[in-house]
Structure formats: C-alpha cells, structure tokens
Amino acid sequence: MDIKIAFILSVVLCVLFTALFIFVRSKGASPKSLIAKTVASFCFVLCCLISLTYSGIINGAYMCIIAGLVCGLIGDILLEAKVIYVQDSDIYLNEGFGSFACGHVFYIFALIDMATNCGIDCIMPILVAIGGGLLLTIGSYFSSTKLLKQDFGKHKIATIAYTFILTGITVFAIVLAIMNTMFISFAIGLIFFLVSDLILSMQYFGGKANNNTLQILNHSTYYLAQILIASTVFIQLL
C-alpha cells in the first residue's frame, strides 16, 4: 500500500474514533469512554508509526516524537480516569500533568534534533522560547485567576510549571517555523495543544467540567494537535 494512502487512512481512523469518543463522552464519563479515548489516542500514535514503518528511517527526532505521542496517550488515559474515579482524581490529575509534561520535553528534544540537522543554531530560538514562555505563563496565570476567576488550589505550582513548558515549546516551534517551513505542522499542532489546555483549564479549575461545548472544543483541538504533530514525520518524507 502506498504510504500516502496508509497515512490518510490512519488519520481518518483517528478522526472517526475521536468522534466516537466525543459521542460516548457526551453521555458521561465511564469505562466505555475510557476505552474509546484510549483507542482514539492510539490512532495518532499509529499515524506516526505508519510513516516510520514506510520510511525505514529511525533517528533521534522521530523516536522522540513517538515517545511524546505515547506520553500523550498515557496522559489521556490518566485524565479520563480522573473523571471516572473521582475519589482518586488528584492523583490521576498530577500523573496526567507529569505525563504530558514528559511528552513536551520529548517534543523539545525532537525539535532541537531536527533543527540541528537543518543547520539551524538553536541558541537564539531557545532564548526566545524561554522569554516568551515566561511572559505567556505569567499572562496566562493572571488572566485565569483574575479575569476568569479560576482556582488552581493545590495544583497551582504544577499548573504554572506545566504552562511554562507548553508555552515555551510552542514559542520555540513557532520561531523554528519562521526560520524553516518544515516545522509549520509541528508549530500549528502545538498552538492547538495550547488552546486545548486553556479550554481544559476552564473545565477543571473554572467550574465548567460538565460543559458539553467546552468538552467538544477541548477534545477536538487536542486530537487535531496530536495529528498535526504526528504528521511532521510524514510531511518530511514527501
């Protein structure tokens, strides 16, 4: 089978199972929604695995992307378990934060490796990412607490740390995309990831956990983000 057809089919599967999960989830969190979410999340890992299988290329950047996607899969399972098993919600939330944070660290390594292979000096983009991440984290925290009245409670430190990692890598990817178009899908994916987490923050810490509109927007932007990140490998093979 042609790699383009195989990849497109994997993306279609991801979209279909994402839609199925959103439908099941609209009926309420349950073991069924956990299974549906796990399958949907495995599909974006599959998108990347198909590209790697057909390319036959195994390098550090691609392995880091796979690792990041797997961390996202694990994080998805943990966050869904948080809603189902309310008595242990804090444990699942902290573990979910950790899993996604690890995924973003893998994405950082992947971007650095790809940029280096393209002859890009990463010092300036990294410095811009650190500065931009700090500013966006501060702005996000104060707008969330002061304007949106969100209460992070015991999760304040974890939320701030996670926000800095996510905003920092997003800025880093955007700078790289400006320097080289091969990073565009990754950068757009991380922007959608950021949007998804901002919506999730309103659900978890803004008292809107059961808002169906926010649930649909959160999961739609999240899965689009991971598909775009997974597509980076496929795009580079074209």
Let me know the largest β-sheet: none
How big is the Rg?
A: 18 Å
Low-pLDDT windows of residues: none
What proportion of the residues form beta strands (DSSP E)? under 5%
The count of β-strands is 0
Share of residues in helices: over 70%
- What is the chain-wise order of helices and strands? HHHHHHHH
Q: Tally the structural domains.
A: 1
Structural class by helix and strand composition: mainly alpha
Report the principal-axis shape. globular
Distance separating the two termini: 16 Å
Helix tally equals: 8
Mean pLDDT across every amino acid position: 91
Any overview of this molecule?
The chain is an all-alpha fold. The chain has one domain. 84% of the residues lie in helices and 0% in strands. It has 8 helices and no strands. It has helices at residues 3-26, 31-55, 60-84, 89-117, 123-147, 156-179, 184-205, 212-237. Helix 7 (184-205) packs antiparallel against helix 8. The longest helix is centred in the middle third of the chain and has 29 residues, at 89-117. The chain is globular. The model has no long low-confidence stretch (mean pLDDT 91).
Keywords for this entry:
238 residues
Q: Short summary of the structure?
A:
By secondary structure, the protein is mostly helical. 84% of the residues lie in helices and 0% in strands. It is globular and about 45 Å long.
Compile the SSE list and pairings:
Elements: H1 3-26, H2 31-55, H3 60-84, H4 89-117, H5 123-147, H6 156-179, H7 184-205, H8 212-237
Helix pairs in contact: 1-2, 1-8, 2-3, 2-8, 3-4, 3-8, 4-6, 5-6, 6-7, 7-8
